[in-house]
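User: Predict the structure for this protein chain, please.
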Amino acid sequence: MFGKFKLACTLVLALSTSSFAADAPGVTATEIKIGGVFPFSGPASSIGLVGKGVLAYVQSINERGGINGRKINYIAMDDAYSPPKAVEHVRKLVESDEVAFIFSQLGTPGNTASAKYLVLKGVPTISIISGSNKFTSVAEFPLTTTGLVSFDTEGKIYAKYLSKALPNAKYAILYQNDDLGKDYVNAFKAFLKSDFDKRVVTAAYEISDPTIDSQVVSLKSSGAEALLVAGTPKFSAQAIRKVAEIGWKPTLIVNFPSSSVSATLKPAGFDNAMGVIVGTFIKDPTDSKWNDDAGMKAYRAFFAKYLAGSDIGDTNYLTGYQQGMILEQILKQCGNDLSRQNIVKQAKSLKDLVLPTAMQHLDQHQRDQQHDLDATATAALERHQLGAVRRSTRHQVRMTQGLPTKAANVQQECRASMGRRLRAQS
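Assistant: Here is the predicted structure, written as structure tokens:
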């Protein structure tokens, strides 16, 4: 009798194991294998620090025993911000490492290059670090969720702000010549409509360009009174520095991908960065105003333990920390059903997730009021000076998409629902 019982248990275990292999690639009883791709090197290496933040958070999860009894084997690859390398690494992660899914792949060019392959293979790519508007299309990217608000939405907020602050002025846009930069230009076109050609002058740069000095000089000669830099930190820092060097005094806005004080404003020179507007939705770890904030206290303790010796002022680490929280929530919601189908389902229906290092939490009712771009969408976008930034970054401008009592929330919502509603409305 005991022998028959033992045989039955063995068969059940064997069936269970084969079920894992068939329905949940990369999953065993004790581990889940997940892949990620980041520009740890190359021209966008500063934003690759997001990956370091994710890795550190995964380490903290594993030290707490994992999730539902499983440790996370997070395999992070370096694509140097090169689309061909991104595709190569994604293929390896899927075909050789056999990961369950891709999480937090960073960079619009790399995500664009590998997206069709992942759809073909049926592999989810969750909470990607790209705001490219095309990824909000559920029809084209059914297994993708986004970790940023769309650049198109962010761009429209800047356009609306400038139309209020400088209603009769000409605007200049310096943009990265790919989907990242072009989405901001298209946002201004959509907002200004027939006035775009009369009101806006643009200049593009390639990620391989050594400098953008000539583009900045050209844009100044247009007579523009405002400049939006829609790119990555290295080039945003160069633009800020060159604007100061040639004595141009525009209203200068830097987009979210370049919002880090340490990655953008510090290399530009704090004296040069005085008056710069930075769009962001996360709390500044170096700002004393958050000293008593529970979420920031927890982050600072985490940073001291897992990222000791790194620059806490670089908010790319903080973005990775928040991404780690999202990953943890998804896996908790999945329970023991780690099929790819359920992973996507849970990623698109996060429940009661609060990111304590985000500017403010929006409940479901508030999230339902989003995307109307009414007056409150720009009410919190104000211009402040960065004069005290050496002592504290408390004067760095924070664009939060609305007042606490009436949240239009577009940018912060992406952290609460990973672009779920953005995608549903596209």
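Residues 242 and 376 are 33 Å apart (CA to CA).
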